[in-house]
FAD/NAD(P)-binding domain-containing protein
Amino acid sequence: MPSDKLRVFTRYLPFLLKYGLKFLYQRLQATVHRRTYCSLPSPQTVLVIGGSFTGVWLARRLTESLPSGYKVILIEKNSHFNYLFNFPRYSVLQGHEQQAFIPYQGLFENAPEGIFEQITDEVICVREGDVELRSGKCIQYAYLVIATGATQSPPAKLLASRKGEACAELRVLQTRIKEAERIAVVGGGAVGVQLSADVKSFYPDKKVVLIHSRGQLLSNFGVRLHEYVVGKLAALGVDVLLGERPATPGDGKWESAELILKDGRSELFDLVIPSTGQTPNTSIIAGFAPSSISAQTGRILVKSTLQLEGDGKFDEVFENIFALGDVAETGGPKMASAGMMQGEIVRENILALIRGEQLAEYTPLALEGALKLRLGKDECVMYIQEDDGTDFMFPGKNGNVDLEAAKAWKMFGAVFEEEANE
Ligand SMILES: Cc1cc2nc3c(=O)[nH]c(=O)nc-3n(C[C@H](O)[C@H](O)[C@H](O)COP(=O)(O)OP(=O)(O)OC[C@H]3O[C@@H](n4cnc5c(N)ncnc54)[C@H](O)[C@@H]3O)c2cc1C
């Protein structure tokens, strides 16, 4: 049987060629746009709420394509871009936490003058035509994009929104891990797996147990990944307990606790790190569009054009409102790559509405669900699964110990701060 690398290459070659050409065309268009965009008085606003992977990508692409007379405003509550792929590593490894918080400024440096504005604030409610911020200000919009993602218990996402406090949050966990001898990570999703593997590979003498409620780790992915990961965790010395759902001290609480297992046995841990569950951030539309929030998943319901799904009453109002990324029920995977692909559809559709053209529809691609999972200090694995269950898996090696943070900063146009400088 051909290797997974060969299979994935032949399977996705046409897509990669098409995407490569599209990317070159986009760069060309962006250069022309930079020279032709004129900043006019009182432009209409495309308002993007949420400046993580999905919102930032979309805002950046809008600054490369909105016509004169329009501008984009990005509202994000965090002072810095939270590079959360590295949070599990910086929860264990000391002295690198500042590298997970990247300044936003460099990202929009090349945008045409007057096309972009960023506001560091929290939207507390959406209304027809405007949004209200925690500071009390109101911002009007012609088009609104909701990319507010989901809340997860720390360290998957952090509670603090300013860099200094967020670094302090990670340092608390680093210290607790360093001081504990017996550690339980509860929740065998991507964060729980990476965290337990990192703790054991940086501190091989500690006892580390990963506890998961189902029979399969990383339950959203295929069994082959589960089997590979279980093998790697065993080789590192992490104990894995499946089908167990012990009560924990609670989200974001990193404490010592006695965990009671199904058979009545109890185990005392110096430190329990809960790593379960996601809550979509939809409260901002709870008053304005309650019927657009799914009763099953709590996510925002959208049409295939990624416009808000209404109950018929507000259809015209909802035409100019989009939701995408982890907060929305798009049919795509809850992954950064999917959010970026959806961003391209939303961008095209905002331009189509401005020009009175036909709207594009989002169809998820298996590649958008590609996962890169770190398995301790040295190893990682890439995994892609298609709808029919076919999957591709490539084990690999991690780069440097801080997981190539400098590359991420470069992508954001920021000057890398290796040392703490808050
Ligand atoms: C450890 C880890 C590893 C991962 N690995 C991968 C991977 O290999 N590949 C991949 O594609 N994906 C990966 N993911 C998943 C990926 O990170 C998420 O799918 C992605 O972050 C979703 O982006 P988002 O912008 O939709 O939402 P989020 O990242 O949740 O961001 C939402 C943003 O909105 C802001 N916000 C929320 N409410 C408001 C408000 N009211 N006002 C202002 N701002 C607000 C938040 O502060 C936040 O910045 C990983 C995730 C983790 C935790």
User: Anything to note?
Assistant: The chain has a mean pLDDT of 93. The chain has three domains: 1-36, 37-154+278-367, 174-276+378-411. The radius of gyration is 22 Å. The longest strand covers residues 266-274.
